């Protein structure tokens, strides 16, 4: 049974990277607000767990286990969402990859993988959903960026470059579509406590001073509640209040700590993991 795009006034949502962390928190929040949600990610078992939690709370969820970095996968995700739930009215891109290293120490395959997942996948997903949004004169594109994308942090490598580029991609989508009822925003978090992030205690920061995934889900929900006449962004930074928990500073401290201990430049940093991907 298909669910119409505007069930209860809430658009069908596609959340990329929905099996854990920020993506899962945003997906649950959107479902609680009334959206039918397509959950896209590489880890099928975890996607099903998120979907089951949404259904148990009375929501509608469609798990779509796909590696969005594979050719054709973004188009497949959008088509499957439309077939199962209805046309996408809200796109959230939370999938990400990070490998911290100085530019001269960055391997080409790591550079390419980060740009593919962090930048090209959001572009491909936006390209798929925008024609329908423009025709219906309604839609949201929300990219999960990073505070590091707004700073020059030595050692952030392809991650910092790709997140900076995502900010510009969002600005372009916003400017090209703002008069057609479509809004595009990058939510750029600082240090968020997830299972993929460094432990605050490793950098001498109390856990309660670091953001959690629900803080980012709250931010997305707040944006969606703004009246149609209001534009916020297209870049919205969300940082911990404490300066010692700032994303760029934390990443720099951790990279320095790793080098001092002989662990190399690509170990886990203070904002996100060094050689991992959000599913």
Structure in a nutshell:
By secondary structure, this protein is α/β, with parallel strands linked by helices. The protein is built from 7 helices and 11 strands.
In what range is the share of β-strand residues? Answer: 15-25%
Low-confidence stretches: 1-7, 265-275
**Per CATH, which architecture?**
3-Layer(aba) Sandwich
Nearest-angstrom radius of gyration?
18 Å
Name the structural class.
Answer: alpha/beta
> Helical residue percent?
40-55%
* Overall number of domains: 1
Strand order of the largest sheet: 3-2-1-4-6-7-10
SSE run: EHEHEHEEHEHEEEHEHE
The overall average pLDDT, rounded, is 87
Amino-to-carboxy terminus distance: 27 Å
* Broad CATH class: Alpha Beta
Task: Tell the overall outline.
Answer: globular
CATH topology: Rossmann fold
Q: Helix count, per DSSP?
A: 7
Family: Belongs to the short-chain dehydrogenases/reductases (SDR) family.
Protein name: Short-chain dehydrogenase
Pfam families: adh_short (PF00106)
Organism: Streptomyces microflavus (Streptomyces lipmanii)
Describe what you observe in this structure.
It is globular, with a radius of gyration of 18 Å. It has helices at residues 21-33, 44-56, 73-84, 108-136, 157-177, 213-224, 247-260; strands at residues 13-16, 37-41, 61-65, 90-93, 96-98, 139-144, 182-189, 192-193, 211-212, 235-238, 276-278. The protein has one domain: Rossmann fold (3-Layer(aba) Sandwich), CATH 3.40.50.720. Mean pLDDT is 87; it is low at 1-7 and 265-275. It has 279 residues and is α/β, with parallel strands linked by helices. Helix 4 packs parallel to helix 5 (157-177). It has a seven-stranded parallel beta sheet, with helices on both faces. A two-stranded antiparallel ribbon has the order 5-11. Strands 8-9 form a two-stranded parallel sheet.
